[in-house]
Structures are given as C-alpha cells and as structure tokens.
Amino acid sequence: MRCNADRLIQGLVTAQLKEQHAADSRKAQQVWEKSETLVVTISRNFGSLGKIVGKLLADTLEVRCCDRYILQEVARRANTDEELVKVLDEHISRIDKHWWSTLITRNTFSYEDYYKYLVKTVFSISLRGGVIIGRGANLILGPERAFRVRIVGSPLICAERVAERENISLEEAMQKAQDVDRERAEYTRKLYDADIDDPLSYDLVLNSDRYDQVQLVELILEAMQKSGYKLKNDVFDSLAKLA
Questions:
Q1: Residue 212 in 3-state DSSP?
Q2: Phi-psi map region of 121: left, alpha, beta (phi>0 left; psi -120 to 50 alpha)
Q3: Which helix (H) or strand (E) holds 56?
Q4: What domain range includes position 198?
Q5: Contact 208/214 with Cβ under 8 angstroms?
Q6: Fewer CB under 10 Å: which end of the chain, C or N?
Q7: Is residue 10 assigned to a domain?
Q8: Average pLDDT of 74-83?
Q9: Residues 6+ positions from 192 with CB-CB distance below 8 Å
C-alpha cells in the first residue's frame, strides 16, 4: 500500500538526516539551501533525449550526472555484486506488491535491501549536488530537496530517435520504446505506488518534440532560476560553450 511505501521512504530519509547531522551539523543545516546545493532529477520517456539532456545539464551546472553510478553505489554500500543489483533494478516491476518483505533467497540481497540502499544513495547524492537520472529519485527527494523534471515525447518521434541511434527499424524501435516505457511506469508503480506521468510529481514537464537538447537545458535552467535557485551568472554562457 502507498502508506507503507511512504513510511519506508520517510523513515530512511529521516535516518539519513540524523546521520548527516551527527557527521557535520553545519553542513546539515545548509544542505537544503537552494543556493548551496543543486539537485535535479530527470524522469524521461525512452527516446525523449532525457539522458542526453541530463548529462549536458550536469556539465553546465558543474555537478555529477548520476545514472549507472547509482547502481554501482548501491552495490558498494550493500557489499554485493553490481550485476545482482542490475538484475533487481531492471526487474522490480515484475514482483508482487509486497516485494519489500520478500527475499530472493534466504540470507542474500533482497528487494528491501535494494530499496534501502537506493534511498540512501539518492539521498547521499542530494547532499553533494547532482543530476539524477530516473529510478524515482523525484519521489524519494520531493520538491524540497530537488528540482524535478520530466521529459516526454510522442511515440513516433521518440522511436525515430531510437531507430537512428541503435540502427534498427522503426517498427523495432517503436516496440522497444513501448517496452521500456512500460517497464519504467511499472517500476514507479511497484516501488512508490505512483503514476510516472502524474504532473504533480514534477516541477517541470517538457515535450522534446518541440525543442532540441540545448533548448531543453535552457528551459530547465530558466525554470530553476524562476523557482528560486541561485545559479552562476555565466551559466548560459557555459551552456553555449558546451553545446
């Protein structure tokens, strides 16, 4: 049930706050100041340019772009094999709604472990700043701890990008995009009991049919400024140089 998932997230976040406060109370007091820590989460349709935009945004903001790094860090924190974490990450949507109390095998890495270390990893990234790609980070951090972006695109245009990028037929690309988007939606529903397309889960939703990757980053930066984030004065010049 949603309340159980919410309580689990909140409990882990609260524990992380206490841990950080004990380690460095001064930094803990500053951690959520928008002028000090830049954290952006990117949720995206497959083929919508979301990952490319995330990397360009991270370079522009001079923070880390976190995608595969999240799995590596979950594996490190759990002292387990990265491939096992990858399997859990890719197939969580196929388990039943009471996944957090179910072990794959006794005395090994569980879905509950995955979720616990995922929350810890996302929270840790948010303390240092970064652009976090996928994995429901927007739902873990919420509006007070991150600027939450979703990038979407029409099925045809997304499939055309995938077909060109992966050198496959348009029909194959359409099917792959549908499968990946379905998997991501189920992942969000299973872990967070949330709708990945709910606009209230984001601060900004952008349609990549209408903008290229540079324009999408510009729009994100402008929206961040308007919402109170203090960005460097030359941030748009930096973007122009990177583009």
A1: coil
A2: alpha
A3: helix 50-61
A4: 2-231
A5: no
A6: N
A7: yes
A8: 75
A9: 2, 5, 9, 136, 139
pLDDT score of 109 more than 70: no
- pLDDT of the residue at 9: 57
Residue pair 80/233 in contact by the 8 Å Cβ criterion: no
Residue 236 lies inside a defined structural domain of this protein = no
On the 0-12 / 13-18 / 19+ scale of CB atoms within 10 A, 82 is middle
Which residue bears the tokens 């923070």?
63
Q: Is 156 contained in some domain?
A: yes
Report the alpha-carbon distance of residue 217 to residue 56 in Å, rounded. Answer: 7
pLDDT of 38 reads 92
User: Is residue 162, in this structure, part of any structural domain at all?
Assistant: yes
Instruction: Report the number of distinct structural domains present in the chain.
Output: 1
Handedness of CA 41, 45, 46, 51 (dihedral sign): negative
Q: Is the pLDDT of residue 177 over 90?
A: yes
Residue 200 in tokens: 């209230």
Q: Among 56-65, 69-78, 103-112, 165-174, whose mean pLDDT is lowest?
A: 103-112
Pairing of strands 130-133, 39-44: parallel
The tens digit of pLDDT for each residue in 10-57 reads 556 555 555 554 554 444 444 444 546 899 999 999 999 999 999 999
Rounded distance between C-alpha atoms, residue 155 and residue 143, angstroms: 28
CB 207 within 8 A of CB 153: yes
Q: Assign residue 187 the CATH number of its domain.
A: 3.40.50.300
Provide the percentage of residues in the chain whose pLDDT is more than 90.
Answer: 48
